[in-house]
Please model this.
Amino acid sequence: MSFSVGQVAGFAGITVRTLHHYDEIGLLVPSGRTHAGHRRYADADLDRLQQILFYRELGFPLDEVAALLDDPGADPRAHLRRQHELLTARIERLSRMAAAVEHAMEARTMGIDLTPEERFEVFGDHDPEQYAEETERRWGNTEAYAESRRRTARYTKADWQRMRAESDDWNTRYATLVADGVPPADPGAMDLAEEHRRHIGRWFYECPYAMHRCLGEMYVADARFTAYYDALGPGVAAHLNAAIAANADRHGA
Model:
């Protein structure tokens, strides 16, 4: 069985002109021709075309493709193994690229306009977009969410570094306070809870005491937030929730 140039072009998803060019340069010469001189392609020609398209997809120039395919000592199975290795490597590269683009899109959504390298430098192994989708779903229609987006969209790498440094410093001091056995209603604990509230207000959105209470309750109701704070020390999440409530009470809110 043989096929016309139009049929082969349709099978392969390429143009007739491309097949003509491959014939003219000797890369893919059809096995036969009709009495009228029209090209006819056999199954072996289709196999060669598939090899050509594999290497073209991988970015090989046509002259290198011809050299690879016309090597008399070449093993067809070796060709397939080489193509499989190259395609696997390309898939891995594209997967990494796709992941980088996805993170960049998420970062833009959260207003974090940093490269992946800069985000790692600022946030370490903490992913600032980890809860981006859930955050938008739960609070996307609130003014606090909109305000946070407006502010963070303007932040530079230096801004994020300052914010993270403040946060890390507060984490260290609060974890030490809890480890020292200071109760949540102690003025020192309430002062740190107030500092926590103001940090949110300074960097993200205005955080009234009622909203701060809600955040504190979320820190113990949501296992992920509990895990984050308890990573600073056992019981930190519950202690902070209680300190936030005591601080709100202290301010009559």
Remarks:
- The beta strands are 3-4, 32-33, 39-41.
- Residues 149 and 171 are 24 Å apart (CA to CA).
